[in-house]
Amino acid sequence: MKAEAFTSCKATQAMIEKTSREGVTTVFHRVREKKTCPFGSGGTCCRLCYMGPCRVKDDGQDAGVCGATAETIAARNFCRMVAAGAAAHSDHAREVALVLLAAARGEAPGFEIKDEEKLWAVAQDLGIDPVGKSKNQLAEEVALKALTEFGQQEGELSFVRRAPQKRQEVWRRLGIIPRGIDREIVEMLHRTHMGVDQEYVHLMLHGMRTALADGWGGSMIATELQDILFGTPVPIRAKVNLGVLKPDHVNIIVHGHEPLLPELILLAVRDEELLAQARAVGAKGINVAGICCTANEILMRKGVPVAGSVLQQELAIATGAVEAMVVDVQCIMQGLGQVARCYHTELFTTSSRARLPGVTHLEFDHHRGLEVAKEIVRRAIARFPQRRKVEIPVEEMDLIAGFSHETIKYILGGRFRASYRPLNDNIINGRIRGVAAVVGCSNPRVRFGDLHTTLVRELIANDVLVLVTGCAAINCAKEGLLVPEAAEMAGSGLREVCEAVGMPPVLHCGSCVDNSRLLIAATEIVKEGGLGEDISEVPLCGCAPEWMSEKAIAIGQYFVASGVTVGFGVAFPTTGSAKLSEFVFGGMKDYVNAHWFYEPDPVAMARTIIAHIDAKRKALGIDVAKERVLYDMDMRRKLEVV
Ligand code: NFS
Ligand code: SF4
């Protein structure tokens, strides 16, 4: 098969070819065999009860056996995706809260409170008075309070109060302020059971409430408590792509989402005894690299190299140079097990919640996490002499990561005057046209990574400051968009701002739970003044052009419910119902002053985002006539030399 058809990433192409030669099956091989079903894809296949399953046509007559219409079925399916995505982010947060609690009580060796400033800030936002309390006392209270946010039955989640006043009022008026994280997710599952909530707008409103419980609840708790435990990110240089694997080192890949065990593995690989063991088997040292959001977490805080994004997980093993891959939860392909068996890699599942058939399970128990980490490193070293069929792609790229919303404040406002004022001023004076968040997964049904980079180049050429997270961030980094020099590709206004402060035009803001940082950044912009009183008035837009996961839908829904219009590519799970599509692509605006849009073409998506930003500028009265630049061949060529 033609590897170029899947992506322009050379490292990925080389490994697709290697696996094809060696008869190893990967996601890129399987995707060609699986045809999508139009009913499933458009959202109108219902299998919620066994009078069905029912595939329902959207012709105004057809219905499921129970009478459910296309819009009801599609809304129920959509809302279930929101619930699953919110559950994933939030269960991650729960785990972090439990570890914070254990660390505060001195029961989690290897973990400690790293960021006291953040601890104080979070405590206050949770309604805890930090004065006069020791670090560990306060951390214990914060962890316990965070845990109550999950099981709370009435009232409002604490972090909701962080949102702009006007936005809180919108939510209150609609009755969609989340009461408790678990409660909203459970209610969403209940309402979508056969024969419960069957009015699509009513369903979608609870879908917003559930999503808000993720964005301003689960995801935000995960981000904030991880910052307390591991430090709030600051700009840091690192490297990305499969070329970060080292031919003469023991390579360990950490993959998944929770940075807990990976942080301990980073400690373990500095252990002198283990380093001596590695040298004894002929390795020069031990190299740790990440995949997916685990990668983003330890990249942001430690500058650990990133081996790749979600679609490169099997390919990393196929280099033949990975001794161990350690996975926990989410975005871990079952295909990994089969690929690992074709090479010398030992694959470890480590979460009590996730196993793969035929794969070593070594459970991460935070009471003895460091021991588990050392055991993994020891076993990785033992695999080193068994390498065969090694071929590591040469591609690697520099990047700068670490743009927490606090950092953005410092970098733009200066060390002594941290504020969003300069950003707001630059948006008002038009140097920066607006802000776009480019987030989410990669999907083998579209050209992997290319949609992200095409879109982002177009945006920065038009003076749109781009914030990236998740796999989108990794893909942009691989193409050299996350270095200050990338400012050369930016329009003159954005370029000027980037060069003045030495920042890239594309800022890596972290993992997917860190999309909560973007909610805070948007709120800070509002609070700084001059750009409206609500998030929905700010010239900004979100998108996930290569999405695939339910988590992406949850994120999109909380962005929209927070007032940010969001575009998705690939395919969209409401298109099987005209009514529901009209609602998500337009009608939602009447409720939350933002909506979804679907656009599979990245250049057209950029155009839509820019038009959206321009409309917001006009409404604010800050529109200055500006020609839209098309990212031309000349600029593309220039990029390839960078
Ligand atoms: Ni986000 Fe991160 Fe990647 Fe998609 Fe998966 S790793 S949590 S879901 S695939 S961006
Ligand atoms: Fe069919 Fe209704 Fe059952 Fe869904 S809930 S499978 S539409 S009968």
TrEMBL record:
<dbReference type="GO" id="GO:0051539">
    <property type="term" value="F:4 iron, 4 sulfur cluster binding"/>
</dbReference>
<keyword id="KW-0560">Oxidoreductase</keyword>
<dbReference type="GO" id="GO:0006091">
    <property type="term" value="P:generation of precursor metabolites and energy"/>
</dbReference>
<feature type="binding site">
    <location>
        <position position="512"/>
    </location>
    <ligand>
        <name>[Ni-4Fe-4S] cluster</name>
    </ligand>
</feature>
<dbReference type="GO" id="GO:0043885">
    <property type="term" value="F:anaerobic carbon-monoxide dehydrogenase activity"/>
</dbReference>
<protein>
    <recommendedName>
        <fullName>Carbon monoxide dehydrogenase</fullName>
        <ecNumber>1.2.7.4</ecNumber>
    </recommendedName>
</protein>
<dbReference type="GO" id="GO:0042542">
    <property type="term" value="P:response to hydrogen peroxide"/>
</dbReference>
<dbReference type="InterPro" id="IPR004137">
    <property type="entry name" value="HCP/CODH"/>
</dbReference>
<keyword id="KW-0408">Iron</keyword>
<keyword id="KW-0411">Iron-sulfur</keyword>
<feature type="binding site">
    <location>
        <position position="293"/>
    </location>
    <ligand>
        <name>[Ni-4Fe-4S] cluster</name>
    </ligand>
</feature>
<feature type="binding site">
    <location>
        <position position="54"/>
    </location>
    <ligand>
        <name>[4Fe-4S] cluster 2</name>
    </ligand>
</feature>
<feature type="binding site">
    <location>
        <position position="471"/>
    </location>
    <ligand>
        <name>[Ni-4Fe-4S] cluster</name>
    </ligand>
</feature>
<feature type="binding site">
    <location>
        <position position="45"/>
    </location>
    <ligand>
        <name>[4Fe-4S] cluster 1</name>
    </ligand>
</feature>
<feature type="binding site">
    <location>
        <position position="46"/>
    </location>
    <ligand>
        <name>[4Fe-4S] cluster 2</name>
    </ligand>
</feature>
<feature type="binding site">
    <location>
        <position position="66"/>
    </location>
    <ligand>
        <name>[4Fe-4S] cluster 2</name>
    </ligand>
</feature>
<dbReference type="GO" id="GO:0050418">
    <property type="term" value="F:hydroxylamine reductase activity"/>
</dbReference>
<dbReference type="GO" id="GO:0004601">
    <property type="term" value="F:peroxidase activity"/>
</dbReference>
<dbReference type="InterPro" id="IPR016099">
    <property type="entry name" value="Prismane-like_a/b-sand"/>
</dbReference>
<dbReference type="InterPro" id="IPR016101">
    <property type="entry name" value="CO_DH_a-bundle"/>
</dbReference>
<feature type="binding site">
    <location>
        <position position="257"/>
    </location>
    <ligand>
        <name>[Ni-4Fe-4S] cluster</name>
    </ligand>
</feature>
<feature type="binding site">
    <location>
        <position position="331"/>
    </location>
    <ligand>
        <name>[Ni-4Fe-4S] cluster</name>
    </ligand>
</feature>
<keyword id="KW-0533">Nickel</keyword>
<feature type="binding site">
    <location>
        <position position="441"/>
    </location>
    <ligand>
        <name>[Ni-4Fe-4S] cluster</name>
    </ligand>
</feature>
<dbReference type="InterPro" id="IPR011254">
    <property type="entry name" value="Prismane-like_sf"/>
</dbReference>
<feature type="binding site">
    <location>
        <position position="37"/>
    </location>
    <ligand>
        <name>[4Fe-4S] cluster 1</name>
    </ligand>
</feature>
<dbReference type="GO" id="GO:0016151">
    <property type="term" value="F:nickel cation binding"/>
</dbReference>
<keyword id="KW-0004">4Fe-4S</keyword>
<dbReference type="Pfam" id="PF03063">
    <property type="entry name" value="Prismane"/>
</dbReference>
<feature type="binding site">
    <location>
        <position position="49"/>
    </location>
    <ligand>
        <name>[4Fe-4S] cluster 2</name>
    </ligand>
</feature>
<dbReference type="InterPro" id="IPR010047">
    <property type="entry name" value="CODH"/>
</dbReference>
<keyword id="KW-0479">Metal-binding</keyword>
